Amino acid sequence: MRLTRRAALGLLAAPALSRAQGAARLLVVGGGFGGASAARFARTSYPELQVTLVEPQARFVTCPYGNLLLGGFRQIGDITHSYDGLQAAGIRLVQDWAAGIDAAARTVRLRGGGALAYDKLILSPGIALRWGALPGYDEAAAEVFPHAWMGGDGSQIELLRRQLEAMPDGGVVGISIPANPYRCPPGPYERISMVAAYLKRHKPKSKVLALDAKDAFSKQGLFQDGWKALYGGMVEWVPASQDGAVARVDPGEKVFETEFGTRHTLAVGNVIPPQSAARIVTASGLAAKTGWAEVDPLTFASRAAPDIHIVGDANNGAPMPKSAFVANNTAKQAVACAAAALRGQSPPEGVYFNTCYSHVGEAYGISIVGIFRPGPAGFVEVPDSGGVSPRGVLPEQRRLEAAYADAWYASITRDMFGG
Amino acid sequence: MQGMPWPIAVLLVLPLLGGAAVADPAPLAAQGCLGCHGPQGRGTGAGARLAGRDAAELDAILRDYRTDARQGTIMNRIARGYTEAELAAAAAYFAAVR
């Protein structure tokens, strides 16, 4: 039976994609914080696995530290990473889009033709932007009001940076922030900070108008303390209860319109739109009605398909945040569980780690820490652990946390890509 | 390789890695440390080097963070999330890295 199935799958695969005889096949879809981490961890920890990574982009531009481009503290090359190190480690890289999954046959169809067979699939495709969920915001509108919320080829974050450079002093930079859940809970507020840092230095008569669909946010007290200390009155954050929720955008008029009809005319507009799991997840029937994938909190196996482990922002990991560190860390548990199953062993115990640093200023960092474990009905934060940086006037703490953020970026990208 | 004891499989596959040094991976509970302290805890910038330090010293530091007997910048918040056994395993791993 097994030989027959393998023979059939062999016919599906293009000749160049044929596999070594015998090794268990771990296929990873998506080369971001979840997928690249999974592929490299599998390659270095489980030599019996043949590891293949499917990723359409030739290089990976990180979302983390993208905001520092807006502040002028990093260049695009600083946040762009090659897959050469993964290939050198023995991971087969297939530069293509995963177009569909046949969970019963355990194959992934490629947009460029052919299909890849797997014994276990690590699916880490990230998010999709829900075009049209915010009226007026579609792909064309994103060329006027960039989202800059997916790394892609870097063009979105660079567009936003160029718009800041081109705007007149005295203008308003609008940032539309969605309701939960979305990728990187503190990210919009770091973005506010980094835009303010740019404006303070180059366009001091300008301001940031942050319009939020929520009334509270991650590290709120720390961010607001930092804005006051560093940027004075340049930042205005408007919660939903004070008509902060943007109801539609008009790129032609450069206007954000709120729920109660207030029209804000902007020099630059950044729309962080509502999101869901990436299309491959929703199109393959792996997402719940929420738009996110439900997974087993110990193994990250899909509730809909047990040989598919879904990691990164695409799953519903609440109360874990959709963060790069969670993707990196939980991807390893998913790989360890897949490898254990292939060996006929029990899955290892799970403990999941997150730290999200945010730069309020170039040398002013704050953080939130969380440690989570699998529980009977989902993920559970370890009581009396984690939490945010202390509040108060603590310049050394802020300076150190900014330096630690830099160490985090250097460390985690090496963990993903080698080097 | 099904049916083959996996250490033998490792020996067979290792030469395919081009002679690259393959160290034992960090325990899963210590993988989070690598996010700031560099590959194998060898340190990166402000992320302190853990590799090659005395296991008992590392373990004592982690326990002191856990009880707030020692004040760190973020390590107190982190150490409280782990069991004493997990902290000891992390300390033993980093001490063994050469």
Question: Can you walk me through this structure?
Answer:
- The complex is a heterodimer of chains A (419) and B (98).
- Chain A is of the alpha/beta class and 419 residues long.
- Chain A has helices at residues 2-12, 33-45, 66-71, 84-88, 155-166, 187-202, 220-231, 279-283, 324-343, 395-417; strands spanning 24-29, 49-54, 59-61, 80-82, 92-94, 98-102, 107-110, 115-117, 120-123, 127-129, 172-177, 207-212, 235-238, 246-250, 255-258, 263-265, 268-271, 275-277, 308-310, 352-361, 364-375, 378-381, 387-388.
- Chain A folds into 2 domains: 5-56 and 96-128 and 276-347, FAD/NAD(P)-binding domain, CATH 3.50.50.60; 131-273 and 356-413, FAD/NAD(P)-binding domain.
- In chain A, the strands form 7 sheets. A 5-stranded parallel beta sheet of chain A has the order 5-2-1-9-19, with helices on one face. Chain A has a 4-stranded parallel beta sheet with strand order 13-12-11-17.
- In chain A, helix 7 (220-231) links the parallel strand 12 and strand 13.
- In chain A, helix 2 (33-45) runs parallel beside helix 9 (324-343), helix 2 crosses helix 10 (395-417) and helix 6 (187-202) packs parallel to helix 7.
- The longest helix of chain A has 23 residues, at 395-417.
- With 98 residues, chain B is an all-alpha fold.
- Chain B has 5 helices and no strands.
- Mean pLDDT of chain B is 83; it is low at 1-22.
- Classes of the chains: A alpha/beta (419), B mainly alpha (98).
- At the A-B interface, helix 2, helix 9, strand 21 and helix 10 of A face helix 1 and helix 2 of B.
Question: Which features characterize this protein?
Answer:
heterodimer, A: 419 residues, alpha/beta, FAD/NAD(P)-binding domain, five-stranded parallel β-sheet, 10 helices, 23 strands, 29% helix, B: 98 residues, mainly alpha, 5 helices, 44% helix, disordered N terminus, FlavoCytC_S_DH_flav-bd (chain A), FAD/NAD-binding_dom (chain A), oxidoreductase activity (chain A)
